[in-house]
Amino acid sequence: MLICSKLMPQGRGLARVLVQRASSITLDWDTRQKSRFDVTDSQGRLLGVFLPRGAVVRGGDVLVAEDGSLVRVQAAPQAVLRITACAEHGSPFDLTRAAYHLGNRHVPIELQPDHLKIEPDHVLADMLRAMHMTVIEVSESFEPESGAYGDHSASAHGHGHGHSHEHGHSHEHAAPSAGKRIAIPVRAAPAEPHVHGPGCGHGH
Cα 191 from chain centroid? Predict the structure, then answer.
């Protein structure tokens, strides 16, 4: 058995040609959310995956085996419920309501701009249909959202955000040179608060 204990989210840092040449494994969500499992890759090798507790493997991730070889992970199609707003009577906001109610039940949900996906559950399907949602069972890959402090999924889907919210300018001001005019902003005194009462001229 070949041991894989390193995970490279979405193969970041690897040349595309290396990833394309790698062997592959196709796993459903039930297996990919485990940190330890055995699997056979496309080359017939038996792999033992040993990742840190709580690690989640996503479609597009790359495992590194102990011999240095790469193993590309593919998300297997599986039975899921696809949830959409009723085209005739609903609105896109209905998806927000559905996600809220599913989230209250701690259901793994895949969020897409125009639909949601959950694992099959006839009780939840009936609840959603009572909310006038359209619910159908399909066979597709399943990539539910992780929690705010979950796996690499803000990188679950490979997104990295390099935004900085620090100001790039200094608030220190040098003394003005002689003879140079400077503009000094003057802040107007706050207006007296308006109190509604008799004779204020406003209709209430």
Answer: 46
Chain position carrying tokens 């899921």: 80
Q: Write down the pLDDT at residue 147.
A: 61
Strand-by-strand arrangement of the 133-140 sheet: 110-111, 116-118, 78-85, 133-140
- CB contact set of 56 (below 8 Å; sequence gap of 6+): 32, 33, 146, 150, 151, 152, 153, 156
Q: Which residue is listed with tokens 């040098």? A: 174
Handedness of CA 198, 201, 203, 204 (dihedral sign): negative
| 97-111 average pLDDT score | 95
| pTM reported for the whole predicted model | 0.69
